[in-house]
Specification:
The protein is mainly α. The protein has helices at about 5-15, 30-60, 65-95, 100-110, 110-135, 140-145, 150-160, 170-185, 205-230, 235-255, 265, 270-295, 300-305, 310-320, 325-345, and strands at about 185-190, 195. It has a two-stranded antiparallel ribbon with strand order 1-2.
Length: about 350
């Protein structure tokens, strides 16, 4: 006989990939509730990443990408470990974890945790490193557009891998989000309210680097999707991938960058703030929230929601830096929001 909690977990996994299966019993444990909660958590992750983007850009002008990413993700790793220990203390104090559950977390899932954490860490390390390298040579506008292309690559890769197409409604949502990205980045408006196409420079090697990183980000989203399907704890998964990412970035800095000459720059107040924010807020909480949210949200829908990172970047620029959001940008962001909302309510059935 299947216990209620185990049965509910099975329903949640089915509902993650087919929203027609979702039922709502009015409880906070119902799959419908958990799916909507997962989507809200992913929006929160996109918000944290969007607010951190300005710190990454500023850091790229001060220290090398490998050194910055290595320190950032080591800070993120130790922050996650502290959170895991704190949560474990609270749960043990409240007697919410049985001895059997402790054994499952430390034995049965250990191998899968290491495998998926290592793979996700490789994607995270390569994607972050390539993105940070490109930020020194590519404008934020172009970098945001090319990076955002992972919302297109995720369904393409999954369709090839699973040999099946997504529902036409989801494909329409992806197209709307892509059009929104294009409008935000390539359509401008002059002082006389005339629209024009922004000047697009010739493709250079760093555009290609960003395109590769976009594909890598898509692989990262898909890997997290598979890992959460295995029931791997989100915080533990985030800790392993953060450590692997930090080691990859550290090795790159060790062999290809001059570390000793940048130590003084690391100790400046702006860099300390940038490292703490991107390490604790963006890495420890942002990527952990991504893993938690993807437990109940399929990867293609998750990619659409996470693409709101660029929207939050613009909003924070408007609120904090007094940057103006013009009409084309407003239209583009509206389309991206519309696509994200469509993805949250349409069925996730294959064609």
């Amino acid at each position: 006989m299947i216990e209620p909690k185990a049965e509910n977990d099975q329903l949640l996994r089915k509902s993650k990939h087919n929203k027609d299966y979702i039922y709502d019993n009015g409880s906070s444990n119902s799959p419908r509730y958990k799916t909507y909660l997962g989507e809200f958590i992913l929006v929160s992750a996109a918000f944290l990443w969007g607010t951190a983007f300005v710190f990454q850009k500023n850091a790229s002008e001060i220290i090398s990408p490998g050194l910055f990413n290595s320190v950032r993700y080591f800070v993120g790793f130790f922050s996650i470990i502290c959170i895991i220990l704190f949560l474990g203390f609270i749960r043990n104090k409240k007697n919410q974890i049985s001895e059997n559950r402790k054994t499952i977390l430390t034995t049965n899932k250990k191998k899968e945790l290491l495998i998926f954490g290592f793979i996700a860490g490789i994607w995270l390390g390569l994607g972050s490193l390539l993105q940070q390298i490109s930020l020194s040579y590519v404008s934020i506008t172009k970098a945001g557009f090319i990076t955002g292309l992972y919302i297109v690559f995720v369904p393409i890769i999954q369709s090839i891998w699973k040999r099946q197409l997504h529902s036409w409604q989801l494909l329409v949502a992806i197209l709307i989000a892509f059009i929104g990205l294009c409008i935000v980045n390539f359509i401008g408006i002059d002082s006389q309210n005339n629209f024009f196409i922004k000047e697009i420079r010739d493709i250079n090697e760093y555009d290609i680097v960003l395109l590769i990183s976009s594909i890598i980000w898509a692989m990262h989203v898909i890997t997290i999707d598979y890992a959460t399907d295995k029931g791997i704890p989100a915080w533990h998964l985030s800790s392993v991938q953060a450590l692997v990412c930090a080691l990859i970035s550290g090795l790159f800095a060790l062999f290809f960058e001059d570390i000793t000459s940048q130590i003084s720059s690391l100790l400046t107040t702006p860099m300390i703030i940038a490292i703490l924010y991107t390490g604790v807020i963006s890495t420890a909480f942002g990527f952990s929230l991504q893993a938690i949210g993807q437990k109940s949200v399929p990867s293609t829908t998750a990619a659409l929601i996470l693409s709101l990172e660029s929207f939050f970047t613009a909003v924070m620029g408007w609120l904090i830096l007094a940057e103006v959001i013009n009409l084309p940008e407003g239209i583009g962001f509206f389309l991206m929001l519309l696509a994200a909302m469509m993805a949250s309510i349409i069925p996730n059935k294959a064609l």
